[in-house]
Specification:
Elements: H1 13-21, H2 30-43, H3 48-53, H4 55-61, H5 67-71, H6 75-81, H7 91-111, H8 114-119, E1 127-128, H9 142-153, H10 161-170, E2 174-175, H11 183-188
Parallel strand pairs: 1-2
Helix pairs in contact: 2-7, 2-10, 9-10
InterPro entries: Adenine_glyco (IPR005019), DNA-3mA_glycosylase (IPR052891), DNA_glycosylase (IPR011257)
Keywords: Metal-binding, Zinc
Protein name: DNA-3-methyladenine glycosylase I
Protein backbone atom coordinates (compact mmCIF):
# COMPACT_ATOMS: atom_id res chain seq x y z
CA UNK A 1 0.00 0.00 0.00
CA UNK A 2 1.31 3.46 -0.95
CA UNK A 3 1.83 6.10 1.69
CA UNK A 4 0.00 9.35 0.98
CA UNK A 5 -0.25 12.87 2.40
CA UNK A 6 -1.59 13.00 5.98
CA UNK A 7 -4.45 15.38 5.10
CA UNK A 8 -6.03 12.93 2.67
CA UNK A 9 -9.19 11.08 3.74
CA UNK A 10 -8.42 7.70 2.16
CA UNK A 11 -12.00 6.52 2.78
CA UNK A 12 -13.09 8.71 -0.17
CA UNK A 13 -11.99 7.04 -3.42
CA UNK A 14 -12.60 10.14 -5.54
CA UNK A 15 -10.46 12.22 -3.16
CA UNK A 16 -7.69 9.60 -3.34
CA UNK A 17 -7.93 9.67 -7.15
CA UNK A 18 -7.58 13.47 -7.14
CA UNK A 19 -4.56 13.30 -4.82
CA UNK A 20 -2.92 10.49 -6.80
CA UNK A 21 -3.39 11.95 -10.27
CA UNK A 22 -3.87 15.73 -10.08
CA UNK A 23 -2.87 17.46 -6.85
CA UNK A 24 0.54 19.04 -7.17
CA UNK A 25 1.05 18.13 -10.82
CA UNK A 26 2.72 21.11 -12.54
CA UNK A 27 0.18 22.84 -14.79
CA UNK A 28 1.48 24.51 -17.94
CA UNK A 29 -1.73 25.15 -19.86
CA UNK A 30 -3.98 28.13 -19.30
CA UNK A 31 -7.23 26.17 -19.61
CA UNK A 32 -6.37 23.97 -16.62
CA UNK A 33 -4.99 26.95 -14.72
CA UNK A 34 -8.27 28.82 -15.24
CA UNK A 35 -10.30 25.78 -14.15
CA UNK A 36 -8.39 25.66 -10.86
CA UNK A 37 -8.80 29.41 -10.33
CA UNK A 38 -12.58 29.09 -10.69
CA UNK A 39 -12.70 26.08 -8.37
CA UNK A 40 -10.33 27.53 -5.77
CA UNK A 41 -12.25 30.81 -5.59
CA UNK A 42 -15.48 28.81 -5.19
CA UNK A 43 -13.88 26.91 -2.34
CA UNK A 44 -13.31 29.98 -0.13
CA UNK A 45 -14.77 29.09 3.27
CA UNK A 46 -15.60 25.52 2.21
CA UNK A 47 -13.70 22.25 2.02
CA UNK A 48 -11.91 21.31 -1.19
CA UNK A 49 -13.78 18.01 -1.15
CA UNK A 50 -17.10 19.90 -1.38
CA UNK A 51 -15.88 21.61 -4.55
CA UNK A 52 -14.34 18.44 -5.94
CA UNK A 53 -17.75 16.73 -5.68
CA UNK A 54 -19.25 19.63 -7.66
CA UNK A 55 -16.54 19.90 -10.29
CA UNK A 56 -18.70 18.38 -13.04
CA UNK A 57 -21.41 20.87 -12.18
CA UNK A 58 -18.89 23.69 -12.46
CA UNK A 59 -17.58 22.30 -15.73
CA UNK A 60 -21.11 22.45 -17.19
CA UNK A 61 -22.12 25.76 -15.57
CA UNK A 62 -18.91 27.51 -16.62
CA UNK A 63 -18.89 26.26 -20.19
CA UNK A 64 -16.12 23.68 -19.82
CA UNK A 65 -14.00 26.44 -18.21
CA UNK A 66 -13.61 28.24 -21.54
CA UNK A 67 -12.20 31.53 -20.28
CA UNK A 68 -13.45 33.59 -23.23
CA UNK A 69 -16.99 32.27 -22.91
CA UNK A 70 -16.98 32.77 -19.14
CA UNK A 71 -15.70 36.34 -19.59
CA UNK A 72 -18.68 37.07 -21.86
CA UNK A 73 -21.27 35.84 -19.36
CA UNK A 74 -23.74 38.47 -18.14
CA UNK A 75 -26.26 39.14 -15.37
CA UNK A 76 -28.78 36.81 -16.98
CA UNK A 77 -26.21 34.01 -16.72
CA UNK A 78 -25.59 34.90 -13.07
CA UNK A 79 -29.33 34.58 -12.33
CA UNK A 80 -29.44 31.22 -14.13
CA UNK A 81 -26.43 29.96 -12.18
CA UNK A 82 -28.00 31.07 -8.89
CA UNK A 83 -30.63 28.36 -9.54
CA UNK A 84 -28.08 25.66 -10.40
CA UNK A 85 -27.78 23.24 -7.46
CA UNK A 86 -24.78 21.53 -9.08
CA UNK A 87 -22.54 24.44 -8.01
CA UNK A 88 -22.18 26.58 -4.90
CA UNK A 89 -24.94 29.15 -5.32
CA UNK A 90 -23.14 32.17 -3.96
CA UNK A 91 -23.76 35.27 -6.06
CA UNK A 92 -20.47 36.93 -5.15
CA UNK A 93 -18.48 33.82 -6.07
CA UNK A 94 -20.33 33.39 -9.37
CA UNK A 95 -19.79 37.03 -10.26
CA UNK A 96 -16.14 36.74 -9.19
CA UNK A 97 -15.60 33.85 -11.63
CA UNK A 98 -16.90 35.97 -14.51
CA UNK A 99 -14.88 38.98 -13.38
CA UNK A 100 -11.76 36.84 -12.94
CA UNK A 101 -12.14 35.44 -16.46
CA UNK A 102 -11.92 39.00 -17.81
CA UNK A 103 -8.84 39.68 -15.66
CA UNK A 104 -7.32 36.36 -16.76
CA UNK A 105 -7.68 37.42 -20.42
CA UNK A 106 -5.91 40.72 -19.65
CA UNK A 107 -2.98 38.82 -18.13
CA UNK A 108 -2.85 36.53 -21.17
CA UNK A 109 -2.70 39.58 -23.41
CA UNK A 110 0.04 41.21 -21.32
CA UNK A 111 2.25 38.14 -20.71
CA UNK A 112 1.38 35.86 -23.63
CA UNK A 113 -0.19 33.33 -21.29
CA UNK A 114 -1.40 33.17 -17.71
CA UNK A 115 1.08 30.36 -17.09
CA UNK A 116 3.99 32.61 -18.11
CA UNK A 117 2.76 35.19 -15.60
CA UNK A 118 2.23 32.84 -12.65
CA UNK A 119 5.26 30.58 -13.16
CA UNK A 120 7.51 33.66 -13.16
CA UNK A 121 6.65 34.00 -9.46
CA UNK A 122 8.66 30.82 -8.78
CA UNK A 123 11.33 31.39 -11.46
CA UNK A 124 9.66 28.60 -13.47
CA UNK A 125 10.68 25.94 -10.93
CA UNK A 126 8.31 24.59 -8.25
CA UNK A 127 9.05 25.30 -4.63
CA UNK A 128 9.50 21.93 -2.91
CA UNK A 129 8.63 22.11 0.77
CA UNK A 130 9.74 19.59 3.38
CA UNK A 131 6.57 18.16 4.93
CA UNK A 132 7.06 15.55 7.65
CA UNK A 133 3.71 15.87 9.45
CA UNK A 134 0.34 17.59 9.23
CA UNK A 135 1.79 20.38 11.39
CA UNK A 136 4.25 21.31 8.64
CA UNK A 137 1.50 22.50 6.28
CA UNK A 138 0.89 26.23 6.07
CA UNK A 139 -2.18 28.11 4.84
CA UNK A 140 -0.24 30.84 3.06
CA UNK A 141 3.27 32.13 2.45
CA UNK A 142 5.11 35.29 1.42
CA UNK A 143 4.77 34.00 -2.18
CA UNK A 144 0.98 33.63 -1.95
CA UNK A 145 0.78 37.01 -0.20
CA UNK A 146 2.65 38.70 -3.08
CA UNK A 147 0.71 36.89 -5.81
CA UNK A 148 -2.67 37.55 -4.15
CA UNK A 149 -1.77 41.22 -3.81
CA UNK A 150 -0.89 41.47 -7.50
CA UNK A 151 -4.00 39.57 -8.58
CA UNK A 152 -6.14 41.88 -6.45
CA UNK A 153 -4.42 44.91 -8.00
CA UNK A 154 -5.30 43.44 -11.39
CA UNK A 155 -8.97 43.20 -10.38
CA UNK A 156 -9.33 39.54 -9.31
CA UNK A 157 -11.84 38.71 -6.57
CA UNK A 158 -12.15 35.84 -4.07
CA UNK A 159 -8.45 35.08 -4.41
CA UNK A 160 -6.84 36.02 -1.11
CA UNK A 161 -3.51 34.65 0.07
CA UNK A 162 -4.93 31.39 1.49
CA UNK A 163 -6.91 30.65 -1.67
CA UNK A 164 -3.89 31.51 -3.82
CA UNK A 165 -1.69 29.20 -1.75
CA UNK A 166 -4.16 26.36 -2.31
CA UNK A 167 -4.02 27.17 -6.01
CA UNK A 168 -0.21 27.05 -6.03
CA UNK A 169 -0.31 23.64 -4.32
CA UNK A 170 -2.96 22.23 -6.64
CA UNK A 171 -1.21 23.38 -9.82
CA UNK A 172 2.27 22.26 -8.81
CA UNK A 173 3.98 25.61 -8.37
CA UNK A 174 4.44 24.50 -4.76
CA UNK A 175 5.07 20.81 -4.09
CA UNK A 176 3.51 20.19 -0.68
CA UNK A 177 3.25 16.43 -0.91
CA UNK A 178 4.54 14.94 2.34
CA UNK A 179 8.10 13.66 2.25
CA UNK A 180 6.75 10.14 2.83
CA UNK A 181 4.07 10.43 0.11
CA UNK A 182 4.70 8.36 -3.00
CA UNK A 183 3.63 11.32 -5.18
CA UNK A 184 6.33 13.71 -3.90
CA UNK A 185 9.03 12.49 -6.27
CA UNK A 186 6.60 11.55 -9.04
CA UNK A 187 5.35 15.12 -9.48
CA UNK A 188 8.93 16.45 -9.34
CA UNK A 189 9.67 14.35 -12.45
CA UNK A 190 6.87 16.18 -14.32
CA UNK A 191 8.55 19.58 -14.08
CA UNK A 192 9.52 21.05 -17.44
Amino acid sequence: MCERCPWLDVSKPDYVEYHDTEWGVPVYDDATMFQFLVLESAQAGLSWYTILKKRQGYRHAFLDFDVRQVASMNQKDVERLMLDASIVRNRLKIEASINNAKCFLQIQQEFGSFCSYIWAYVDHQPIVNSIDSIDDYVANSPLSDALAKDLKKRGFKFLGSTTVYSHLQATGLVNDHANSCFRKKEVQKLVR
